[in-house]
Design goal:
The chain has about 160 residues and is of the alpha/beta class. The strands form two sheets. The chain has a five-stranded mixed sheet with strand order 3-2-1-9-10, with helices on one face. Strands 4-5-6-8-7 form a five-stranded mixed sheet, with helices on one face. The radius of gyration is 14 Å and the shape is globular. The mean pLDDT is about 95.
Amino acid sequence: MKIVVMSDTHGRIEVAQDIMAEMNEIDLLIHLGDHYEDAIFLGKYMNIKVAAVKGNCDREEALKEIILELERHKLFLVHGHQYGVKMSLNKIYYKALELGCDIVLFGHTHMAVNIKHDGVLLMNPGSLSLPRDGSRASYGIIEIEGENVISSIIEV
């Protein structure tokens, strides 16, 4: 299963459209907020399934958190502002443990993170449209094959 992970597109989806048009065999698009409607548009544009959460800048009536079970893995999707991810990843990490999730996907900081801590993958794909603090525009790819999870950040 191949998953594209994006966050914080803020209505600027031209780069996302170009990237996704070049990809093959995408099974799922995950969008982690701040312009929830971008996720809906991209899903229709690519004719793929979408899982998306509401960010702190979104007004839509959408879920703020989602738990997905994919293959043998449990994913926690959240924008991240409600867990103070700009200051520390502790709260979001412990929430994932509480929920029994082994993959945590979040945004909000506009800076990419791809780390594994005690068996829990924490990924922030960064932002394709508004990267911060000298980081480059980026998105994430997760490939799941049974127990194996391969995650990567792609800079544009």
